[in-house]
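Page 47, continued from p. 46.
Same chain as before, 724 aa.
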Amino acid sequence: MSILSLIAGNCGRGKGHRFSGRDLFSSELLGSSFTRANQIWSKEIYRNKSRNKLRIIAKIKKGKKYDYPWPDDMDNISSGHLSYLSHFKPLTEKPKPVTLPFEKPLVDLEKKITEIRRMAGETGLDFSNQIGQLENKYQQALKDLYKHLTPIQRLSIARHPNRPTVLDHILNMTEKWVELHGDRAGYDDPAIVTGLGSIDGKTYMFIGHQKGRNTKENIFRNFAMPTPHGYRKALRMMKYADHHKFPIVTFVDTPGAFADLKSEELGQGEAIAHNLRAMFGLKVPIVTVVTGEGGSGGALAIGCANKMFMLENSAFYVASPEACAAILWKSSQAAPKAAEKLRITAQEHYRLKIADGIIPEPLGGAHADPAWTSQQIKNTIVESIKELEEMNTEELLEHRRLKFRSIGGFQEGIPVEPKRKRNMKPSEINMPKAADIESEIEILKKQILEAKGPSDPITSQTIEKLKHDVDKEITNAFISMGLQEKLEAVQLELSTASQDTPSQALNRSLKEKVDKIMQEFNHNLSRPGAYLGLKQKLENLNLVSRIIETEERKKKLKAEINQKIPAELKAKMELLKSAEEKISRGETMDKDLIEEVQGVKQELVEILKAANLEVVGVTKKNVATAPPELKGKIEKVNKEIYEEIECVTKKTGISRNIEDLKADIEKGASSEDREKAEAKIKQEILATLDVEALKEKVENLAAELGLPKDGDTDHEVGTGNGRF
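Result:
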């Protein structure tokens, strides 16, 4: 903000003084009494008017520029959606997949089928027919599950965390969109969104409840529970649309109006009632679409329309099943029973003529393919508005009034047929069940394990075959999704592009088309249970690519290290290998050899550091160990041999010779004398020891381990176990 500094002073001949002894700022003048300020100014000016002149100095300080939501360059906006006027931004992270309780058995089956396909691929045998039959049965079971959902299961789909919100549908349907805010009374409730959008060049007023896509957004949107300000904002936009003759489209997705103390104090009931009364007098067509759940008056406040449509898995109720169960059965655990009695599903509302139609959803719910669901909503809205616009104003108002007057109506005096009990349960003959599919999976898994041989190494022929299979299945997937024609059109456009067209503009246009096709392809591919074989092969191809990349990096790194290792060090590394061989044979190394080995290791570490490699540590090679039961037997035989040797050395007095040898080693005896003394002691032990009994034990143990017989067993017993 700008600060205005007013300085008044008197200028006389040779002397002067300031008007009031200090500067007067605009904020101070506004904060004080205007009467008092006028008195001060009048008094001072009157006192000095005869001999002084009045001087006013104004100083304007440039303040901070206001941060408007729209961009500076309004002419270069490429998209028709004015996103800078909306709080709805793209998510930085993809939502995590959420599995509902009734979906878990089939999700587990899908994982098992994927595992079976992987195992079959490792064997190299052809199990495609059996796996194809399993996938067909799985698809049939999946369709049967979503075709015969219970009311509480449909409600759980309507409340799914990843279900597309109202703004998701609006942005998918409209070419241009601008969000409008505020009730013109100082409030803007984010739980209700309003704005103008165009579909096929025609302008509509969109109003709807907005849920959040994560916890932070849900808190900001108040979980789509509007306050009175939201309903007053919606009413203002309805009157605006009525004035400009824009058709009104409302989206319902709320558990109900926000019932806190503050909302009641601000007139929650009055705001809803005002909307109900006003909507019956609007002279433009109104269409309502229930996209999620519609709770009580909070949904009706924007739902008094000429036509109401419901998504296949949406719900509309006067009280939630949990609340109804708590009232009637004193427990929310009875919610499934309450949901059935309340008749909350789209199918029940259509049968009772409350809803005018049911909009289909993809298999698995609207979150499985939001773009396809939005397209179905768009087609329904366009057809309905076209039909309603053929009516004049009086017919339109009468049509809306009669729709609600006919709900719940009945006629007396007409005989009614006796109620016939019908078995509404679907036939279970030839209907695949999850348990049957799971048993077939286990049988096939057993067959694969029996036929499984050693895994083949990854060869270039295997990789080429995998790539060929993936290309073939992707082509078939494009055809089954109906995207082949679009892809061929893009290829034709690329081949027949005019040379006059700038390459940059052409590339941008083609990139947008290709991105749109791939987005639709990925949506269809991510549907539950769809294209399992293709998904598995794509995962295998990615795994092979990573393995090949890792091997190439290892070869490159090995070559770089070998180039930096000098020839002298390579010769010393042979010393390391010989030392490892000695240790593996159980031989001892002298002090000089140990020091030399440590020096070679240190030189090797320095060379690796020079190659910009971080040496974390030096580890020993893993040596294969025997099974626990055989390991116990080996330890037992070794213990018996040691005890026998110890007993012999004590009886024959060889232990004194051993002590003398230890003393000579400590004094620094030469290696020749030490080796002679060791050989003498070993010969004495072998001469006294009962070698035949020990030999028999070792041979029995070798037979259990499956080792070949060795004719020099006597020597091995004496040498291998005669260490000190």
